Amino acid sequence: MSYISQRNQAFLFVLEIGVVLFIITLAGTACF
């Protein structure tokens, strides 16, 4: 049970980083 929740937490963490990088890329494209 805790293993699954740990995997879910890691997945959400990676997803969050992906979203942040995506937003930064969009902002960079809009600036230049």
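Next protein, fold it too.
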Amino acid sequence: SHQPKEDGIYVFQPHSQPVSCLYFSPANPAHILSLSYDGTLRCGDFSRAVFDEVYRDERSSFSSFDFLAEDASSLVVGHWDGSLSLVDRRTPGTSYEKLISSSLRKIRTVHVHPVHRQYFITAGLRDVHIYDARRLTPKGNQPLISLTEHTKSLASAYFSPLTGNRVVTTCADCKLRIFDSSCISSQIPLLTTIRHNTITGRWLTRFRAVWDPKQEDCVIVGSMAHPRRVEIFHETGKQVHSFLGGECLVSVCSINAMHPTRYILAGGNSSGRIHVFMNYGSC
């Protein structure tokens, strides 16, 4: 780490390769967990300025992770080769508790249901699968639910933040899809299909529509439109808002995140620049 400049920016370099997934701990805001292509998952403790190793597997390439337990003690980690790891931070060492073969050839994202935390959703090449963590075995796992409506490559799949009653997916067929996951049985119906240009090209990070964490019915996604913008859609498909930055926003914000309690949006481009939108009441 480096000492902060006068603007209060700290720089940490805990990984030797790019970071693919980054979350604050839901149990401790001073902890941030980072997953990297270098085959490690680390927990940064800002109070000590130290990143401790949580999980290591240099033979594998990690894509995504999420917290199975609300206290952040256990996690599920997705691998690019389609396997999954269950990791318990309370266990000594940096290995997994269980390594699982999924029925996907590749896993891009993994996301845990916010209420019924035994369920998690994975986005593969073209299929979305929902699994029950209690029923996983090392080999031959079949999903509880498989969503096969996608005709091209998937980028992501996420449960809605408060109840998990919705799922949003982002696909290279230029469609965002919203499903009704209020009853997790053998099928969950498709509610809405939103046409949206998701073709970012080879040099830009792919779009991933994400939910506003404060509500159940709005998703945020980058845009290829001019002038450059970040867009919000209602679950019905209606465009609710476009964040425009004028001369300040001249690039595509592929990665976007809304503040969990305030009306503040941060959008990142593929050059490392972050644009922040806020209303004055959130300052």
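About the second fold: The two ends are 28 Å apart (CA to CA).
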